[in-house]
Specification:
alpha/beta, 5-stranded mixed sheet, single chain, 14% strand
């Protein structure tokens, strides 16, 4: 027996408003509980220097590279033609300063402008290698954070 003859069957509806409310609460929970951290490819620990200043300064050859591409070796401007000519300039600067009398080889100090191209610094490093100077260092400014 069918007692519902006059009425047609109603299709059930899904009420989306409570569903959206629940999803927004879950989204807020995930956003608050998620930690955002940066992952790097290399995890390194940089060394710290706790040494005192050296009492005796070794012989240094100061090479300056400016942003325009000019080189100076011990405050003497050098015309750069190739790396070999820069190496000869480094050797002559070492001889002029009397590095031959010392048993220790001089240290090449590279003073490069922050806007100098990397290739210019690499040229100085290659010239020092060709000249036979194994000790190389870079000069840097210390920041005054006052």
């Amino acid at each position: 027996m069918n007692f519902r003859r006059g009425r047609g069957r109603e299709d059930p509806e899904i009420n989306l408003i409570p569903f959206i409310d629940v999803l927004l609460v879950i989204l807020i929970f995930l956003m608050v509980s998620t930690t955002y951290s940066k992952y790097t490819e290399l995890q390194i620990t940089l060394p710290t220097a706790d040494a005192e200043k050296a009492l005796e300064r070794p012989h240094q050859i100061n090479v300056t590279v400016d942003a325009k591409g000019s080189y100076t070796v011990d405050n003497v401007r050098i015309q750069f033609h190739d790396v070999a000519s820069l190496a000869e300039a480094l050797k002559s600067a070492a001889k002029a300063a009397g590095a031959g009398a010392d048993s220790a080889a001089p240290i090449v100090v590279i003073n490069a402008d922050q806007f100098a191209m990397h290739q210019m610094v690499i040229n100085v490093m290659e010239a020092a290698r060709l000249a036979g100077f194994e000790k190389l260092t870079f000069a840097a400014q210390t920041s005054t954070g006052k």
